């Protein structure tokens, strides 16, 4: 099932500082999956000086910071401040143009323009560049800049704004807050003004001053820079947030060359290695500037550049500790309930694509989440993750068309910061070829993650404090599981030929993931793990076959079990009460959906099942019509596979009934009537429908008005569909249409292009006439001014089902082809 497949491993400027020099505390640093240092507050103003000067900042000692701050703490309208605009804004040209267009746009109403991105991605540099643009200077009557920072003082913030636009001098420091607000408001009245509030961390900071800024319908603007999306949305929920992205490789190389060579060209012998260095900076401007500053003052030889290429991260994060402290500001601002979740991201290897369902199950098992009634722990985990994303600490890799998070990742430099902080705090130790293990390291260690091809034997660890053991290595030659307090065991990269029976003694276990290729039964003693929440068992291919795994009936009696995922598991009926906590059940074959069976899993949200059949199959025994009784079910995947592929059968005609809360439905290998298609269309919450290796009873599909009201993603892989009749109003929410291996389909109806929400048409091994019709629809929409519709033609990419399904389902590969007499199918 896809759930199991998803689980497989993948491998700035502060011209008018608004706060005093008081010390601020800087704290460095859960799809199917704190050393605290004192840092002078002046550092934040330094971290946002112009990009071309950042290398001076990260190299200088703590004693020099205050001097540099004073040289850069200038009035927002001073000529010195304007003169700092020497940067060529490499990589920010498009961003700069977009911000300028919004500043001088046609709207006369007061507008707030928020620039959002992770620390030192260039938010302040962009804002400063636009602020000092000659046309912008001419366009606005008054301009003022203030840097807010994490610890702000409202009186100082107001004073700094007034100081930059009046000559009241010492009188400002004698005014109370309300007097300052009134004075500032009067000064801005009847003037077209531009205010920059740089580095805002709290919604309260905006709330304190927002009423000071009058809206006289004269085109005034406010620019706000922040690392936090919620701050940007709070300031103005009606306008779009401008998000800063990482630089492309071309932009990165251009910035690196500018820092190293200025206006000169890079020597040809250094171009290749220069590209390698730029790649390793992963599009982060600050990293490129730091490395550029290093290369600018060093030998410009190929040998030295190759050395730097191998040590980019150590040059950035090791040599310049201040760089780490800049990024640590984001961690310092995290609320307590998010810190453990954030530090835990260090368990994953560099560049690891993290499946959200996998991560959430780990967070739940680790106990990082605070229950919020009536939400489930999984729902709370999703909120935590979205919060970290909004803070620009975690990057979204992929979302479904329903908007649900599918995969995420973290920037390499953020990960290095996490690992450093986590290891200092004995929260996490990452073990690889370079970093081994010792009794000193293991003392009071809580989480252990193993990367790389290494041999690991922990020896006698019965007094260990380790609560999590994650084997994310490509190859592990030995394993010894003897951690009595263990909660999480993720051994998905280790093959067990014999089930590790010792784990049933680890009564604190909440999460188990492993590969088991031995005896085909899971021992009933697994039920002793009364705290177990997640059990995932992979079955690796041996000689082109996957043996069916037989599960004990006791498994559904485990009181805390929430997620049960297998590759081809046979589940017998429990003899008594089942599990009301179970949310996920996938990889189960020939599951009998009797009323009694479904009553034992009433809160199931995700179900993945498959059925083997031949000409003698009595379909009624599986009772699929009872699926309607799973009222909490949101995702259903159901495969129908012939037992023998040597004697192809006409696909089964299946009559199905589905619960109303269903959001995602995947069916493959069966044949349905048009009545069933109307059943699909009538599901009020259906957002994703995938029909694979499919046959209809008729070759013509005619959709009806009022059906598929919420459907966003539709995939059709149909062997006998020839004609499709549809109106532009029939699929009002459709965003993606995917067609795969429809050999008889002549064309896509032109009315599909009239669906206002449609963004993508994806084609896999379709006839030329179908491809032509798709491009014709795109051209027609472009002529009408709709440039958003994309067509993706993948004629060389299509998989019919999955290979292992053919293997384990066939009589020839499983000669016994029968179930144990003691296991009556559920």
Determine the strand fraction and express it as a percent band. 15-25%
Oligomer: single chain
- Low-pLDDT stretches are 1-88, 796-826
Distance between the termini: 19 Å
Major sheet description: 19 strands, parallel
Report Rg.
30 Å
Shape: globular
Structural class, judged by helices and strands?
alpha/beta
Put simply, the count of helices is: 27
The helical percent reads 25-40%
Number of strands: 31
What would the average pLDDT be, to the nearest integer? Answer: 77
Protein name: Disease resistance protein (CC-NBS-LRR class) family
Domain Disease resistance protein winged helix: 347-418
Organism: Forsythia ovata
GO biological process, one term: plant-type hypersensitive response
Outline the secondary-structure elements.
Elements lengths: L1 H6 L16 E4 L8 E4 L2 H6 L6 H6 L2 H11 L6 H5 L9 H11 L7 E6 L6 H9 L2 H6 L2 E8 L4 H10 L13 H12 L4 E8 L2 H7 L11 E6 L2 H7 L6 E2 L5 H13 L6 H13 L4 H12 L5 H9 L1 H7 L2 H12 L3 H9 L9 E2 H11 L10 H14 L4 E5 L5 E5 L2 H13 L4 E3 L7 H4 L4 E4 L17 E4 L16 E9 L14 E6 L17 E5 L10 E2 L12 E8 L13 E6 L5 H5 L6 E8 L21 E8 L9 E2 L10 E5 L1 E3 L1 H9 L5 E9 L3 E3 L10 E6 L4 E3 L10 E5 L19 E5 L3 H16 L6 E5 L8 H7 L17
Parallel strand pairs: 3-6, 3-7, 4-5, 5-6, 11-12, 12-13, 13-14, 14-15, 15-16, 16-18, 17-18, 18-19, 19-20, 20-21, 21-23, 22-24, 23-25, 24-25, 25-27, 26-28, 27-29, 29-30, 30-31
Antiparallel strand pairs: 1-2, 8-10, 9-10
GO biological process, one term: defense response to virus
Subcellular location: Cytoplasm
Family: Belongs to the disease resistance NB-LRR family.
């Amino acid at each position: 099932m896809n759930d199991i497949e998803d689980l497989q491993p993948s491998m700035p400027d502060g011209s008018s500082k608004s706060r005093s020099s008081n010390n601020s505390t800087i704290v460095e640093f859960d799809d199917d999956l704190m050393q605290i240092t004192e840092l002078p507050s002046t550092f934040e103003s330094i971290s946002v000086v112009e990009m071309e000067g950042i290398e001076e900042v990260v190299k200088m000692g703590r004693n020099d910071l205050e001097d540099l701050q004073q040289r850069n703490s200038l009035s927002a309208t001073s000529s010195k401040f304007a003169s700092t605009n020497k940067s060529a804004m490499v990589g920010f040209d498009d961003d700069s143009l977009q911000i300028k267009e919004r500043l001088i746009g046609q709207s006369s109403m007061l507008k707030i323009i928020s620039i959002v991105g992770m620390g030192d991605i260039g938010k302040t540099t962009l804002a400063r560049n636009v602020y000092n643009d000659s046309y912008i200077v001419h366009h606005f009557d008054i301009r003022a800049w203030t840097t807010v920072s994490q610890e702000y003082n409202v009186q100082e913030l107001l004073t700094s704004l007034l100081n930059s636009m009046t000559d009241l001098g010492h009188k400002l420091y004698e005014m109370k807050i309300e007097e300052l607000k009134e004075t500032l408001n009067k000064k801005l009245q009847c003037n077209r003004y531009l205010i920059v509030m740089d580095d805002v961390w709290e919604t309260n900071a905006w709330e304190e001053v927002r009423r000071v800024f009058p809206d006289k319908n004269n085109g005034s603007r406010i620019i706000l820079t922040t690392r936090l999306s919620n701050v940007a949305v709070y300031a103005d929920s009606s306008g779009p947030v401008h998000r800063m992205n990482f630089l492309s490789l071309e932009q990165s190389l251009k910035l690196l060359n500018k820092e190293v060579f200025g206006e000169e060209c890079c020597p040809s012998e250094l171009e290749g290695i220069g590209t390698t260095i730029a790649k390793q900076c992963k599009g982060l401007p600050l990293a490129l500037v730091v490395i550029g500053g290093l290369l600018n003052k060093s030998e410009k030889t190929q040998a030295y550049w190759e050395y730097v290429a191998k040590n980019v991260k150590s040059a950035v994060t090791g040599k310049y500790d201040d760089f780490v402290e800049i990024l640590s500001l984001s961690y310092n601002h995290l609320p307590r309930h998010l810190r453990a979740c954030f530090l835990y991201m260090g368990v994953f290897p560099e560049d690891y694509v993290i499946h959200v369902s996998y991560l959430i199950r780990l967070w739940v098992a680790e106990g990082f989440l605070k229950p919020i009634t009536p939400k489930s722990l999984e729902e709370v985990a999703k909120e935590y993750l979205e919060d970290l994303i909004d803070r620009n600490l975690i990057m979204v890799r992929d979302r479904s068309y329903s908007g649900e998070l599918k995969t995420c990742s973290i920037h390499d430099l953020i990960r290095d910061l996490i690992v450093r902080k986590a290891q200092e705090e004995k929260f996490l130790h990452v073990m690889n070829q370079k970093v081994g293990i010792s009794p000193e390291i293991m003392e009071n260690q809580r989480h252990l993650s193993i990367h790389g091809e290494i041999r690991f034997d922990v020896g006698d660890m019965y007094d260990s404090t380790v609560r999590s053991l994650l084997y994310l290595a490509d190859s592990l030659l030995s394993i010894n599981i003897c951690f009595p307090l263990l909660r999480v065991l993720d051994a998905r990269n280790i093959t067990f030929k014999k089930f590790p029976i010792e784990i049933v003694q680890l009564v604190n276990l909440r999460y188990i993931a492993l590969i088991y290729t031995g005896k085909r039964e899971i021992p009933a003693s697994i039920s002793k793990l009364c705290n177990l929440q997640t059990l995932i068992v992979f079955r690796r291919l041996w000689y082109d076959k996957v043996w069916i795994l037989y599960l004990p009936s006791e498994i559904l009696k485990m009181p805390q079990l929430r997620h049960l995922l297998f590759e081809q598991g046979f589940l017998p009926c429990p003899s008594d009460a089942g599990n009301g906590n179970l949310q996920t059940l996938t990889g189960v074959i020939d599951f009998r959906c009797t009323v009694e069976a479904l009553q034992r899993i009433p809160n199931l949200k995700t179900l993945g099942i498959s059925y083997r059949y031949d000409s003698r199959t009595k379909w009624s025994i599986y009772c699929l019509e009872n699926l309607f009784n799973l009222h909490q079910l949101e995702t259903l995947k159901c495969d129908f596979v012939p037992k023998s592929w040597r004697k192809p059968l006409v696909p089964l005609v299946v009559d199905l009934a589905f619960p109303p809360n269903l959001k995602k439905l995947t069916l493959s290998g069966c044949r349905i009537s048009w009545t069933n298609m109307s059943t699909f269309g009538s599901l009020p919450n259906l957002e994703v429908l995938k029909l694979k290796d499919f046959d209809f009873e008729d070759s013509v599909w005619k959709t009806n008005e009022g059906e598929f009201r919420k459907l966003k993603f539709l995939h059709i892989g149909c062997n006998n569909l020839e004609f499709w009749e549809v109106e532009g109003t029939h699929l009002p929410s459709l965003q993606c249409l995917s067609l795969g291996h429809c050999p008889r389909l002549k064309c896509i109806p032109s009315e599909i292009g009239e669906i206002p929400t449609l963004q993508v048409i994806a084609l896999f091994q379709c006839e030329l006439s179908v491809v032509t019709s798709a491009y014709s629809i795109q051209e027609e929409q472009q002529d009408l001014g709709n440039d958003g519709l994309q067509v993706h033609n993948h004629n060389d990419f299509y998989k019919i089902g999955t290979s292992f399904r053919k293997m384990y389902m066939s009589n020839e590969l499983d000669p016994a082809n029968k179930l144990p007499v003691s296991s009556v199918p559920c």
